[in-house]
C-alpha cells in the first residue's frame, strides 16, 4: 500500500476500522488464536475486539509457541501481546531482530525469522522493519518484555518487531520499566500459579502519529495481569492487586492529564512519562472509550 493511502487513514476512529488483510494467510498467522490459547486465562482471548484489520499471530520460535500477539497491518504494530509471566533465568539475549514471514508470504515458514539484507519488499510492505526506527527518536518498546520470559529461547522470541511499538526512552527505561519489575515482584511474592499478562498500546484519539510515515506511534501503553491463584491472607497493602490489576503509562509528555496525571516533581529525564496503576475495570473503561469497542481482557474478570 502506498504512503498516500496509509496517511488517508490518519484520523481518530478510523485508526481501528481498516480492511482485513489476513484472510488468505496460513499456519501460525491465522484467523484466530486456536494454536496458542494457553497464553490466555481460561484459554479465552480478549473479547470485544471486533473491528476489521487485526491479525492474530501465534508467535513461534525454534519450533515452539512462545506468546501471542494481535497485529495490525496498517499500523505495523500490535494492539497487544499476551503471555505467561515467568521470571528470566538469565540475561537479556543478544539476538538479531526478527519478522513474521507469513505476514509477507502466505505459505512462508511459520517461524519468526531474522531480517535479511536487503529486506524483501514484501516484508517491508507487510510489517515494520528495523530501518523504520532509525533516527526516529523512539526506542523499540517490547509489549512482552524479555525479562518476563524464563528461558533463553523464550526471551529471544520477544525480539520480533511484531511485538514492538515505538516507545519514548523516558517511558521505556523509566516508569514503564519500573512497572514491569513491580509485576515480577508481585508474581514472585504472592502468586501461587500462573500470571496471565496482556500488554498493549493505545493510539492517539486526535489522529494517527507515525514514524517514517509507516509505523503508528501510541499515545499510551497499557498492561493488565490475571493471577487467579494467590496466597491467602494477603497483607492489606496488596489486597487490591489480586486477582487482577492494571496500569496505563504515558508515551507522550505533552499529552493531556485526563487519563494519567503528570508528577511535576519527577526528574527531568522521565517527567511526563508517568504510569498510573488502576483496577482492571478502570482500564477496560478507558479502552472502551478510546478504541470504541467493549473489551473484556480476561474471561470472567479472572474470577
TrEMBL record:
PANTHER family: ENDONUCLEASE DOMAIN-CONTAINING 1 PROTEIN, ENDONUCLEASE DOMAIN-CONTAINING 1 PROTEIN ENDOD1. One of its GO terms (molecular function) is metal ion binding. SMART domains: Endonuclease_NS (SM00892), NUC (SM00477). The lineage of its organism: Eukaryota, Metazoa, Chordata, Craniata, Vertebrata. This is Endonuclease domain-containing 1 protein-like. Pfam families: Endonuclease_NS. Residues 1-27 form the signal peptide. Residues 63-266 form the DNA/RNA non-specific endonuclease/pyrophosphatase/phosphodiesterase domain. Keywords: Signal. InterPro entries: DNA/RNA_non-sp_Endonuclease_sf, Endo_G_ENPP1-like_dom, ENDOD1, ENPP1-3/EXOG-like_nuc-like, His-Me_finger_sf. Residues 64-282 form the ENPP1-3/EXOG-like endonuclease/phosphodiesterase domain.
